[in-house]
Amino acid sequence: NENPMDKNGLGNHLPSRNQTIGDIPEIKTATGAPVTDNQDTMTAGKRGPVALEDIWFLEKMAHFDREVIPERRMHAKGSGAFGTFRVIHDITKYTKASIFSEIGKETKMLARFSTVAGERGAADAERDIRGFALKFYTDEGNWDMVGNNTPVFFFRDPLKFIDLNHAIKRDPRTNMRSPNSNWDFWSSLPEALLQITIIMGDRGIPSSYRHMHGFSSHAYSFINKENERVWVKFHFRSQQGILNLTDQEAKKVVGMDRESHQRDLYEAIEKKIYPKWKMYVQIMTQEQADSMKNNPFDLTKMWLKKDFPLMPVGEFELNENPANYFAEIEQAAFNPAHTVPGISFSPDRMLQGRLFSYGDAQRYRLGVNHHQIPVNMSKGVENPHSFHRDGKMRVDGNLGSELHYEPNSYGNWEDNPKENLPKEKGGDVYRYDFRKDDSDYFTQPGLLFRAMTKDQQQVLFDNTARNMGDSTLQIKHRHIYHCYKADPEYGKGVAKSLNISIDDVDLNLPPSDSKENLKKANNLHPEL
Ligand code: HEM
Q1: How open is the CA angle 34-36-39, to the nearest 5 degrees?
Q2: Looking at the record, which segments are called Disordered (predicted)?
């Protein structure tokens, strides 16, 4: 009975941990009163009803009734650990961020990895993107790098993010995931093909979180001491190497262990086999950005390594399991808006949308004062001195009796003008159709397809066919057509695995990149 997870090389599972009892084993109420009996509720007579004055029962039950908090809307199932980042190469000419200020400098950090579509109890070994979220507790405040294990995303406008989640999560009627909705949506967006090709390929199910790379995916910006900006993408390369599961192996793993990623990460760290990732950056100057044919801030495209080589920066190691999962991982709030001087944003529409969404989601999920939860506090900065006051669950001194308006005559709440960002380009406000800016959907998926071995290509065809499941013929044709545009062999391979003759697929259509084109394609073959 071979376990596909054995290839991760961790050896035998650890026995479950013994609980440690504190110095004072006696149980107390939340306000410190002794609990005299934790076995029997207080009743009126031996067999009578329960008394309202059993305040221990009321407190225990009421607390339990509130134990769950909303899960993350996506990326709900995840695992995390603490670690250390160390600088190995000097990049101070690009950024003044203190985390990178000198070779050898170490910064404490937290990582959380996740699947995307499944709920908090979902199995780990599913075909899906993996989240790759890092929080660096720098001495200038927290820098969160909230990435994925893929360098691109399905689309380029944040308005579509809500539709993506509705399409891939549960159907409102059946309460089941629906391949038809999933592929209907994906195949209606030709720009999604690169991301689809990655997920349907052999990297679509990493064997563990330790065995995958991470990417910022978006371009961000670096600002140096002269207040000059360059554009930057971050890459984190697993030093454990890449290991994946096939669909067949994953089925077996899920049947044996729904927590395979959680177990692997936890046990590796307990066994002191600390996982490591090397950090690299790709740098693009404004001049290079201006001369790019494609929009450099388009999240559906990679910056090719041959044009923008990976420059090594440093390395991180995860070496400490959380002592308490809920306190330190479930309550962790990663947010791309959390930056430090020297690191900033880019005009990538998707990133701009994310800058609002995370804090907003966390104010709902964790509360307005979630920055006070210890795992989210900016440990490197002694006194963050933020202006905010009051709100639910304010648990520090709430800024004592300091005045709370600005301007004032007492010199409090001063601006920091020296950290002002350099100017960003802009233009007239309008809803610009990004497809008119760039409708090259197929070059990069074609490049990726041709970089695969024949075996990898076959795996891609078969995974795609299995994953499309009960999708309608219409949708299958649409996807085959997009694959064909990327590379005829890609289209033919997927068609064959789907048992569809490529001759039946209309290859003269425009891509389904507008409502009109989509209608045209659907009307041509209403019988499908
Ligand atoms: C989680 C929104 C795209 C990576 C989340 C959460 C929201 C969100 C609301 C839950 C936050 C929480 O409750 O703590 C969005 C929106 C997007 C977008 C609106 C596009 C417009 C992306 C992209 C990436 C990404 C492109 C990667 C490059 C993640 C990760 C998490 C996450 C890793 C989990 C963080 C954690 O471990 O706590 N996203 N997201 N998201 N997102 Fe996104």
Answers
A1: 130
A2: 1-20
**CA 13–ligand 1 middle distance (angstroms):** 32
Q: ipTM beyond 0.90?
A: yes
Ligand 1 atom 40, closest CA: 354
Q: Got the DSSP string for 136-174?
A: EEEBTEEEEEEEESSS--S-S-GGGHHHHHHHHSB-TTT
* Per-residue pLDDT at 21: 64
Q: Is 209 annotated as a binding residue?
A: no
34 vs 518: which has the higher pLDDT:
34
Q: What is the DSSP letter of 507?
A: T
Amino acid in position 257: D
- Provide the b/e sequence for 31-56 (b: ≥16 CB within 10 Å): eeeeeeeeeeeeeeeeeeeeeeebeb
pLDDT digits (tens, 9 = 90+) for 281-332: 999 999 999 999 999 999 999 999 999 999 999 999 999 999 999 999 999 9
- 295 as an active site residue: the answer is no
How far, in Å, from the CA of 358 to the mean position of ligand 1?
7
At residue 305, the pLDDT reads: 97
- Phi then psi for residue 115, to 5 deg, are -90, 175
Out of 182-191, 493-502, 505-514, least confident range: 505-514
- 175 dihedral zone (left: phi>0; alpha: psi -120 to 50; beta): left
* Residue 210 near residue 5 (C-beta atoms within 8 A): no
Residue 81 is given by DSSP the state E
CA count, 13 A, side-chain hemisphere, 168: 21
* Residues contacting ligand 1 via CB (< 6 Å): 72-75, 78, 112, 114, 131-133, 146-148, 153, 158, 161, 217, 332-334, 350, 353-354, 357-358, 361-362, 365
Q: Assess whether 75 carries a catalytic annotation.
A: yes
Residue 259 has pLDDT above 70, yes or no: yes
Where would I find the beta strands (DSSP E) of 18-103? 78-87
